[in-house]
């Protein structure tokens, strides 16, 4: 009996799909106007009425909405949204004119600018670290996350701090892998940064799934920014993509974890922390040597709650 019921359900599903498909084609075809001028191109028979029915639906004509209205069904037509950067680029690939690279002079101009801010562009390790900070800032920290952060269900400052450190490591690993495996290696970073069900670093229970605000836009923002870095890699090479994101890091996060200035930032924070009344501070902050070591090597090891207390004191600003 269970097998018979299961087969009957499958048959009913198939029947409903067939009826729905036939109805869709019928509505589209009924909405088509006569176009006798197209008969020659379509090689129609002599008795053709000039109306050419569709056998495949790509996107229905606007007249389908009018036909539905005549049958008492009102459907609001959606406004066309802006094309994503990815789709815009794909459509542009068919153009015959030569495409100009995004940053044609970056290889020549960037090293001297980076050197002015203490970043040696010829030191691959330093360049990768700086670019990783820039990628996290541009793709993850900047944009819709601020609005999510401001909601009642958003992450705390400490949770954002911890997660940014974890994502820095992942961004750095992805950029290193991209040198050998191509820009597709950046997908590993996107997978974690945009995971709505993954609890954040620093022993935080926060997930994007539980947050309010523009979470969908946030995920798309991450994908778009990382895609752009991948495109720069394809068009101008791995090093050019790193130089571009390194510029972002210097402009937006010069003293963040992973930057050359981070040790000096930690030293200043520890001097200020030693002078503070820490009676209400988390117990983990009682041992300053251990705190300094964690901040230098892996701040998320302190936990999101401890990092939140540190953020409230503005010690790392």
Write the layout of secondary structure elements.
Elements: H1 2-31, H2 39-42, H3 63-70, H4 85-92, H5 106-116, H6 124-141, H7 144-149, H8 157-181, H9 187-193, H10 215-236, H11 238-252, H12 262-275, H13 288-297, H14 304-312
Helix pairs in contact: 1-3, 5-11, 6-8, 6-10, 6-11, 8-9, 8-14, 10-11, 12-13
Task: Describe this entry's structure for a reader.
The chain is an all-alpha fold. The chain is 59% helix and 0% strand. It has helices spanning 2-31, 39-42, 63-70, 85-92, 106-116, 124-141, 144-149, 157-181, 187-193, 215-236, 238-252, 262-275, 288-297, 304-312.
List keywords for this structure.
317 residues; mainly alpha; 14 helices; 0% strand
Based on CA atoms alone, the radius of gyration comes out at: 28 Å
Low-pLDDT residue intervals, each spanning 5 or more residues: 55-61
* Estimated share of beta-strand residues: under 5%
Helicity range:
55-70%
Write the element-wise H/E pattern from the N-terminal end onward: HHHHHHHHHHHHHH
Provide a short characterization of the protein structure.
With 317 residues, this protein is mostly helical.
């Amino acid at each position: 009996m269970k097998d018979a019921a299961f087969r009957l359900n499958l048959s009913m599903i198939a029947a409903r799909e067939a009826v729905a498909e036939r109805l869709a084609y019928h509505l589209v075809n009924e909405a088509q106007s006569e176009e006798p001028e197209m008969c020659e191109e379509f090689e129609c028979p002599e008795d053709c009425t000039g109306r050419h029915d569709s056998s495949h639906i790509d996107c229905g004509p606007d007249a389908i909405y009018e036909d539905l209205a005549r049958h008492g069904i009102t459907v609001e037509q959606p406004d066309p949204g802006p094309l994503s950067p990815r789709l815009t680029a794909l459509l542009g690939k068919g153009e015959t004119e030569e495409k100009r690279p995004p940053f044609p002079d970056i290889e020549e101009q960037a090293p001297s600018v980076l050197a002015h801010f203490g970043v040696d562009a010829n030191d691959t390790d330093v360049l990768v670290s700086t670019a990783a900070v820039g990628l996290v800032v541009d793709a993850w920290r900047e944009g819709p996350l601020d609005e999510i952060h401001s909601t009642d269900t958003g992450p705390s400052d400490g949770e954002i701090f911890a997660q940014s450190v974890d994502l820095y490591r992942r961004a750095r690993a992805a950029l290193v892998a991209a040198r050998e495996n191509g820009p597709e290696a950046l997908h590993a970073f996107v997978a974690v940064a945009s995971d709505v069900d993954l609890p954040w670093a620093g022993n935080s229970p926060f997930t994007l799934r539980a947050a309010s605000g523009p979470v969908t836009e946030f995920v798309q923002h991450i994908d778009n920014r990382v895609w752009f870095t991948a495109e720069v890699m394809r068009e101008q090479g791995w090093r050019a993509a790193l130089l571009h994101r390194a510029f972002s890091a210097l402009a937006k996060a010069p003293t963040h974890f992973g930057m050359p200035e981070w040790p000096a930032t930690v030293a200043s924070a520890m001097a200020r922390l030693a002078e503070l009344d820490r009676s209400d501070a988390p117990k983990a902050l009682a041992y300053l040597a251990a705190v300094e070591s964690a901040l230098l090597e892996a701040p998320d090891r302190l936990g999101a709650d401890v990092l939140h207390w540190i953020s409230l004191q503005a010690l790392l600003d």
